[in-house]
Amino acid sequence: MECALEHYDPWGLNLAGIERQGSPDHKFQYNGIEKQVDLGLNVLMAKYRTLDPQLGRWWQVDPMVEEFYDLTPYNSNLNNPIRYDDPDGDCPDCIFQLVQLYTKYSAIAQKAHAPAQRLLSNKSGSTPSNINMGESTRRIIKVVGVSQDAVKVAETGKELGREAVIDAANVADAGGEALADGGLLAAPFTKGASLSLIPVGEGISATAKMTKATMYTANGDYNKALEEASNVAVGAVTNKLTGAAINQSKRVGNITNSKQEVTQETALGTISTMFNKIYSKTVEYFNEEK
Q1: DSSP string, 107-131
Q2: Shared-domain flag, residues 266 and 134
Q3: Which of 78, 149, 222, 249 is the most exposed place for a label (fewest CB within 10 A)?
Q4: Are 243 and 257 found together in one domain?
Q5: Which of residues 93, 114, 130 is at a domain's end?
Q6: For 166-208, what is each residue's pLDDT tens digit?
């Protein structure tokens, strides 16, 4: 049996002259997108849209067209397939997240723009000279104006700081979960050695979740704070139950060697992880419904 060998240009067009036919003929090729050859179309069917590799364009409008108003809504990979990939047809990897972060932080920083400019130019609390009022009254208004602008700038700085902490905690949370999941998945191949990564990953994730809960509480978003705190609590309970189940199996003789222990710990860990993720998504769903 000779395996197929695919080659394609940066836009996903198959380079038939240097390809090798074989079995099986894989349909998922360019960026993992399924190739559709029925009726001689030779297009790529992504999750959200259909890509025509001959044109380097999608057939349908970008579902996130509002975020990329300076580009045609049919563009592929921001017109740069070497640098960006878009396997789902909705947005090149990471770009949308960067746009969201820029938009969010710009909107927050804008709150402090006017008061900061007044403070820098010494115009906070200034009153027109043609208004008839005493000098003492002008000084009072000046002090009040400076104080108000300074408070606004300080509050904006705190808000930016809290949002930055939440975003950093989100990254740490995802990284911790990925580390724990990787340790669990690799357990059968490492004879259980990778299971030591699970408590490390879970510890990172739990710390990040509690950090987010604290920041959400400071922001007055109590629903999200409760969501993060409950995820930590549920994770702690399932981990404790997993440990208790393994210890009980050892006591009654169901586990008699390290191989059996790794097998049971991997199985219970998988169930525990699935339950935690389902619980997290369920809580998130009901909070969004509110």
Answers
A1: HHHHTTHHHHHHHHTT-TT---TTS
A2: yes
A3: 222
A4: yes
A5: 93
A6: 888 888 888 888 888 888 778 777 877 787 888 888 888 889 9
